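Weekly modeling sync, notes
Attendees: S.R. (lead), two postdocs, one rotation student

Agenda item 3: backlog of single-chain predictions. S.R. asked that every request posted to the team notebook include the full sequence so nobody has to chase files. The rotation student volunteered to paste the first one in as an example of the format we agreed on. Action items at the bottom.

Example entry:
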Amino acid sequence: MISRPQSTYLVICVVAFSQGVLGLADLAISYMQKEDFKMNPSEMTYVQGIISLPWVVKPLWGLCTDFIPLFGYRRKSYLFIFGILGFCAYNALAIYGTHNPTIGVLLLLSIQTCIAFCNVVGEALLVEESKDKKSTKNVSLFFGIRAFGTLVTSYLSGYCLKILTKTQIFQITSIFPLVISLTSLILIENPTPTKSSQQIKDLKNFINIPEIHQPIMFIFLFMLNPSISTAMFYFNTLQLHYTADFMGQLKFLYALATMWSVWFFNKHLKQVEFKKMFLFSALAYSAVNSLNIILVTRANLKYGIRDEVFSLIDTVLVQTVAELNMLPILVLSCKICPPKIEGTMYALLMSTINLGQLIAKQIGGILMYFLGVNDKNFDNLWILITIASVYVLLPLPFLRIIKEKEMLDIKQKYDVPEMFDDYERISLSFVEK
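Predicted structure, as returned to the notebook:
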């Protein structure tokens, strides 16, 4: 007989793995937008912003799963329903969305809504189990398994485009949301009555504490780093003429670097102070990200380095450092989530990251427009990369506002309801000012 913790961790692992495996369709979606919908880089950036909206409003999904039980359950009912809806949405995309941009974008938006909701539930279960100093272990488990799922399908995503149609790829990908739905049935969860408004009040009071909301603002500002991903996709495929197969290899190395970073962080860096870890990883990320300038200016050829070799090395370096920069944020976010509102609070923290990334993509698109970077001209792409690399350094002087010990102390006090009254008064007085 499976125990409750075992069923919970099994569901967490399935959600994480499935989220990674869904990347099987990522290249097919990118090529669909580029080739079938005839989108230029700026248009693709705009569309990616639209379909990313469900990840920005993750607190809404967190509120639902924390405060509005469905059929008496806070977690399993939502996983089952949105897994089924994701299965249907992928099949609808395969049948109706590959030739009509409007229908295609709407279905992609629906798919991301289903994935984001399942992700919120999985992360809520993760936070619930992250007690007694298990935060680092559980975060590493979740994101490591997700990276493994990406690794499994990353190389295949490029190869599949050679032997399968986009419709067939979408139909194969639809299996994984269905797996989430079926796995939710084994989750052992006690029936939960509908929550009162007290938890919403607690969430508001918790966020109003300066030691909590100031770090959230810092993370948001840091994530506004202008995105170069869309521009680099077009540069790689149009200027360097990388095939879908090679793009799949790059994605494979991306996932491999992510897994290695998660292991290395959990093994050697989990005890390092947050500020120190974040500072050095941000400085390193600024440096390795700027290496793309060598590729887009073709300077690598002067040193006898082939484009493919440079791209493979650059992918490993950038993703390794980027993951080591992000993991401390994810672990700290998990640690500070108070009980009873853990799903909503963690979703709020993750949506802060997602909102920053969404705006960063739009900023990247705007900069591409003003710099004249498009599918026929990449002359000024090096300027965009320079701006992105320099921006990483700008928020670092404000790193001092993150006080890890104080944040954890506040969370501990919140665990004891009667001890939270003082913080509620502090929060209210802060708001009144």
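Discussion: group reviewed the output briefly. The mean pLDDT is 85.
Action items: rotation student to repeat for the remaining queue; S.R. to check formatting next week.
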